[in-house]
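User: I'm curious whether this sequence folds into something compact or stays loose and floppy. Could you predict its structure so I can see for myself?
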Amino acid sequence: MEENNKVRKFFKELIPYVVIVVVVVLLRIFIVTPGVVNGESMEDTLYDGDFVLVNKIGLWFGIDRFDIVVVKLENDTIIKRVIGLPGDTVKYSNNVLYVNDQKIDTPIKFEVTDDFTMVASKDEYIVLGDNRNVSKDSRVIGPVKRKQIKGKVNLILYPFDDFGFIR
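Assistant: Here's the prediction. I'll summarize afterward.
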């Protein structure tokens, strides 16, 4: 009889830990996940080694122009800024951004973007790195499908000097 009580007590004490593990796993799968920036393609917004929080639930509310997103490619995962939405024609000419023939002011500063024109079909997005000179983005890989976008990057966790929401 005493043996049964020990086993019950053990499982009763174990339940909170199991619940915590399940909650953490569910949060990571469906809500947020940590990520590390790899490379210089998003400078001066994000830097190599920055520890960021990838917001998966934010995708439920849509993807907007200039959102920073995580894109899963076949053999790579990249972080880029959304420039073109489904159905948009994006054009850079003389270092000026045009979307659907309307001049757009960008919230970021960059050196030079070579001229190009690209069209995003239904369910596609045009993504570019902020540091265009070294970025592997839609100019190389083409528009990305909505299902390839895994989350939005809204928060820098580390380094602590840069902790906060991303512009």
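Summary: Residues 5 and 35 are 44 Å apart (CA to CA). The chain has a mean pLDDT of 89.
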